[in-house]
Amino acid sequence: MKPLGNDWDDVLRDDFNSPSYLELRAFLKSEYATHRIFPPMNDIYNCFRLTPFSAVKAVILGQDPYHNPGQAMGLSFSVPDGVQLPPSLLNIYKELEDELQIPPANGGNLTAWAKRGVLLLNTVLTVRAYSANSHRGHGWEILTDSVISKLSEGRKNLVFLLWGSNARSKKSLIDPEKHLVLECAHPSPLSAYAGFFGCGHFRKCNEYLSAHGIEPIDWNLNDAATSAKG
Questions:
Q1: Looking at the DSSP assignment, which residues form a beta bridge with residue 182?
Q2: In the 8-state DSSP scheme, what is residue 131?
């Protein structure tokens, strides 16, 4: 595995040398050799490469990567430039416009958010084509749970945005005395009207950061120069 190129290398050193991760690596080697897997191997860890541990301001926690061709890029909810926006991301843009009057971006590449301190983390970082949750339970959760725990322990005044039951199940890993935890329904069309719309999370996130002397996040993606390679 190539180094991440920032402070995550030290933060996750023990995790990357653990027996569970070595088992995961063996599983992934077989999967990539025998099935169509997303995202491309070199993009799996984009969320860490683009958002160093020390630069994280907020965490948007997703479930697993998009499983249709050309969508997954190693950032939760994000798709590369030129790819049709998935329904969940359309709803995220709608909520952002309702809260902060930011017009929806033309594309779905969220790299600019990652560079501004938003860790776009999935609980599982790979998936088989056309098969949601197919890599669930193979070791990714051990690593990503550790990521959440280390952010909770090693940082302070972060905002964790937990959308949907899968993300909300990670609440116990976060110290509410040190961080703001925001919970609501998933932005999927199946659940967005059950609490995601009107949640106010983007506004609440920035209000919290400002109250703790941290520059709020610029959520505006219009005219942002985005690149998955960072």
A1: 161
A2: B
DSSP character at residue 160? E
Predicted TM-score of the model (pTM): 0.95
Contact 221, 112 (CB under 8 A): yes
Which tokens in the block code for residue 67?
A: 């499983």
For 171-206, b/e burial (b = at least 16 CB within 10 A) is eebbeeeebbbbbbbbbbeebbeeebeebebbbebb
Three-state secondary structure call for residue 170: coil
Q: DSSP secondary-structure letter at 74?
A: S
Rounded to 10 deg, the angle between the 140-154 and 19-34 helix axes is 130
Q: Name the nearest CA neighbour of 75 among 40, 116, 25, 109.
A: 109
What letter does residue 164 receive in the DSSP assignment? S
Rounded distance between C-alpha atoms, residue 28 and residue 21, angstroms: 10
pLDDT in tens, 12-50: 999 999 999 999 999 999 999 999 999 999 999 999 999
Residue 217 and residue 205: Cα distance in Å, rounded?
8
Q: Please report, rounded to a whole number, the percentage of residues in the chain having pLDDT higher than 70.
A: 97
Q: What is residue 102's DSSP assignment?
A: P
Going by C-alpha positions, the residue among 149, 156, 143, 126 that lies closest to residue 36 is 126
Active site residues: 64
E-strand stretches of 67-146: 118-122, 127-128
The whole-angstrom separation of Cα 41 and Cα 67 is 14
**What pLDDT score was predicted for residue 226?**
40
